[in-house]
């Protein structure tokens, strides 16, 4: 036996074990994610506290994605200045994380208990419809005495019709407005012992306000961003269809008439069988969906203030001294204006404006009205007739639709959808693990190209045959007019603020005055 050769028994004895100290150290280092390194105490063997506890059907990766999002936000907005004060304190970020866990638990419980059907099928469509009505009522008043002889801009006139404390007349968001809102939300979500320390509360509040006011609002209110989002939802736009040109080519001379007839007959049979299979599948799917919907109990109307209004206004404290909005100008439309109520104790509250809607079902009415206003259907007889027929059909099926639409909404807001939304938000706000640079505004040519692709959309399948009836003889002009009310960033900011107020009011009805 040579000196370099190791006996088989000795080689087996010195073979590294999978459970050795080295391998366990490697495994432990691989498990040290960013959330564990920042949100747990050093050398801690504990796991991160459970983030989602109410919903039992959540995606298993959702908690990890949310923790990664929290860790990225704290590393970006807290760690840079905190390490300048002291680099030895490693308990500050874990303590903030414990506070955030309480907030997430409270929001999850409230979101699990609220009724989203009224929000999705009544309140939000009503807000969007009012935005289109007010915008189109303002456009004819430009360059007239209503606009002080043409000196007032479109956004200034829109601010007079839809005043809001959070936005000044020039479209700037007031961060003090959301500081007060977040402070009340923290008071409602946190235990008293966690809410009392002002330092932690202020840090969490400023991080949330910074992300919302400085990072999210300036991006989602841009017309090109909204148009790009619509384009992504529509899918790829096919500019040319080459199939028809290929099929129209003449047959070769050596192809017999009998051979061509056989191909035509077999193609027709294949198309017919495919259509029959598609109809059978659609019929079975429809029957299954109808059975599931009929088995779903009707959602009772919740007698709570979370479904009482669609446009609200949060009033800051007296010390904030917000920019006063001008008085609302007379308008023929019932605008989503807000009332100003400042309580004596100075606590910001939500003031309901529109009449109560907690008894309203008819979930198909508001979306159809929104569609009618977006495409401006009242200017075309065929569109008006089609949507009127559709509205009458929906009215005759109200009990069934009041079960079907919440059922579809529940399946749309699936755990996978929430997970994808969280991942998309994380990649958008922290593209490389840190806050990304300001969004690159597309050039005018690129913005025009995005708009042109939306205007050129004609749909696929049955929707392509209905478009001439819904959009009229010139679909491009109709789609272009539908994009006009979303073409001003200041007006879009008011729309987003009203929608956000409605979402906050749904989750936190205590904000109502």
Automatic annotation (TrEMBL):
GO molecular function: phosphatidylinositol binding
Domain of life: Eukaryota
InterPro entries assigned: Phox_assoc
Biased composition regions of type Low complexity, renumbered to the chain: 330-339
Cited PANTHER family: SORTING NEXIN, SORTING NEXIN-13
Region named Disordered: 295-353
Organism lineage: Eukaryota, Fungi, Dikarya, Basidiomycota, Agaricomycotina
Domain PXA: 59-238
Protein name as annotated: PXA domain-containing protein
Biased composition (Polar residues): 295-315
Pfam family for this entry, one: PXA
């Amino acid at each position: 036996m040579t000196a370099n050769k190791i006996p088989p028994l000795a080689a087996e004895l010195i073979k590294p074990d999978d459970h050795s100290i080295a391998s366990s150290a490697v495994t432990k280092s691989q498990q040290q994610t960013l959330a564990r390194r920042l949100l747990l105490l050093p050398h801690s063997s504990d796991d991160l506290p459970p983030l989602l506890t109410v919903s039992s059907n959540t995606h298993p990766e959702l908690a990890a994605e949310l923790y990664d999002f929290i860790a990225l936000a704290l590393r970006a907005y807290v760690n840079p200045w905190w390490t300048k004060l002291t680099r030895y304190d490693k308990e500050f970020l874990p303590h903030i994380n414990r506070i955030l866990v309480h907030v997430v638990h409270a929001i999850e419980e409230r979101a699990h208990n609220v009724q989203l059907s009224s929000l999705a099928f009544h309140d939000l469509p009503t807000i969007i419809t009012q935005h289109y009505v007010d915008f189109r009522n303002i456009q004819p008043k430009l360059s007239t005495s209503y606009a002080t002889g043409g000196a007032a801009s479109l956004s200034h006139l829109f601010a007079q019709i839809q005043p809001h404390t959070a936005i000044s007349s020039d479209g700037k968001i007031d961060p003090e407005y959301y500081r007060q809102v977040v402070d009340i939300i923290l008071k409602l979500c946190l235990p008293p012992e966690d809410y009392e320390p002002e330092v932690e509360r202020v840090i969490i509040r400023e991080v949330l306000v910074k992300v919302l006011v400085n990072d999210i609002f300036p991006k989602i209110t841009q017309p090109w961003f909204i148009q790009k989002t619509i384009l992504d939802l529509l899918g790829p736009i096919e500019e040319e269809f080459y199939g028809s040109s290929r099929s129209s080519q003449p047959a070769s001379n050596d192809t017999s008439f009998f051979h061509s007839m056989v191909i035509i007959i077999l193609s027709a049979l294949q198309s017919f069988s495919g259509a029959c299979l598609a109809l059978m599948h659609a019929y079975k799917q429809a029957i299954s969906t109808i059975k599931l919907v009929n088995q779903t109990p009707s959602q009772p109307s919740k007698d709570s203030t979370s479904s009482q209004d669609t446009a609200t206004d949060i009033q800051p404290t007296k010390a904030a001294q917000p920019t006063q909005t001008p008085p609302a100008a007379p308008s023929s439309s019932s605008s989503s204006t807000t009332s100003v109520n400042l309580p004596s104790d100075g606590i910001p509250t939500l003031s309901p404006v529109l009449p109560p809607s907690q008894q309203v079902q008819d979930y198909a009415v508001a979306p159809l009205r929104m569609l009618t206003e977006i495409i401006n259907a009242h200017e075309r007889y065929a569109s008006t007739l089609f949507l009127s027929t559709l509205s009458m059909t929906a009215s005759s099926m109200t009990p069934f639709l009041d079960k079907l639409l919440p059922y579809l909404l529940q399946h749309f807001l699936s755990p996978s959808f929430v997970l994808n939304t969280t991942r998309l938000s994380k990649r958008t706000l922290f593209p490389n693990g840190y806050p990304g640079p300001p969004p690159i505004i597309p050039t005018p040519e690129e913005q025009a190209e995005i708009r042109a692709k939306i205007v050129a959309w004609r749909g696929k399948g049955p929707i392509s045959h209905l478009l001439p009836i819904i959009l009229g003889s010139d679909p491009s002009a109709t789609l272009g007019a539908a994009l006009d009310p979303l073409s001003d960033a200041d007006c879009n900011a008011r729309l987003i603020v009203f929608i956000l107020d409605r979402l906050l009011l749904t989750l936190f009805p205590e904000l109502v005055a």
